[in-house]
Amino acid sequence: MRKKIPLAWLQIIHAKVRFVVALAGIALACVLIFVQLGFQAALYDSAVKLHRVLRADIVLISPIARNLTIMNTIPRRRLYQALGIPGVDTVEALYIDNLTWRPPENPRVVQNSTVLGFDPQYPVFTLPSLNQRLIEVRARDNLLFDQGTKGNYPKLIEQLQQGKTITIEANRRRIDFVGLFNIGSSFGTDGYMITSDLNFLRLFTNRTKENINLGIITLQSGADARTVKLAIAEQLRQENDVRVLTYQEWIEWEREYWQTGSSIGFIFGLGVVMGFVVGVIIVYQILYSDVSDHLREYATLKAMGYQQSYLLKLILQESIILASLGFIPSYLVSEVVYGFCRAITRLPLEMTLSRSVLVFVLTIVMCIISGTIAVQKLKSADPADVF
Hints:
Blueprint: H1 7-14, H2 16-47, H3 49-52, E1 58-61, E2 74-75, H4 77-83, E3 88-101, E4 111-118, H5 128-131, E5 142-146, H6 154-161, E6 166-170, E7 173-181, E8 192-196, H7 197-203, E9 211-212, E10 214-219, H8 225-235, E11 243-246, H9 247-261, H10 263-293, H11 295-303, H12 308-345, H13 353-374, H14 383-386
Parallel strand pairs: 4-8, 5-7
Antiparallel strand pairs: 1-10, 1-11, 2-9, 3-4, 3-10, 5-8, 6-7
């Protein structure tokens, strides 16, 4: 049975300490890649959380808006101009602004939430549980609180679930949380608050009803979004203060900002590259040491007639074995890291099959590159010199 065990496997397990160190190094590099890819995906997914729960076919935004948290404003009358386009069913206005507040459970903590204001008589969300509570925000200074807000507020959430009212002070005004909904935090905001357009304007006294942040347009059944979008754009062509996007284009616009317009997306991408490079270096050091320690044996194989290609195949086999075994603990550790970060940040950090396959392939490639570099040492394995 022992003779049937591949030589590459025997080479790897011969030095058990080195074998364990190699697996630990590969696992560390893989965990780094997993974490960077996980946060990168969470960045893009969390950035469009709000987009996915809005009832919209076409949106109107400011041409100088950068992302959902920096929307600038457009004239509300642009909505009424769009209403006359064939195929348009409804138009609604959404007000967006950032609110700094302190939770009653821990007044030392400063939260940055995004407040959404609209006419509650015409719901703009697709969440049934949220729409059932919109009647509560018609009362003066009433808001709904996002239970997915980043932070730990068990007491506040429990009291709201029991039907109690939580009063805080923000923007020099007392406001009341009267209910809950769940959208969640993102890299741009700690969470959301929802209220009526009138309460929004009371809370942000520098805002006016005529200037909105987002125009939400729904279409009649059977209407083509792209065709109607082009018609609206033509109608508003002479206006330089509005941009027309389909729902999907709006999502891609948001994602593009975080991918290319912000430094965060670049940093996560760089982290993946650095994890890959670290893995290549670690595996190279392990394989290079192994080749150096067994240089006499490799020289003997050459003297017996084995070609360089056989030795390369041997080292590559060692690389693939190390990659496969090192990936397993990295996957398990990354699951734990994802769970911990998800609980702390409230970001959608989930392990996916596609990401697991990608990291496994990167691990194989990483180890093959290291093996290909390390095998260059075998060119010097000349029996005449070694012995």
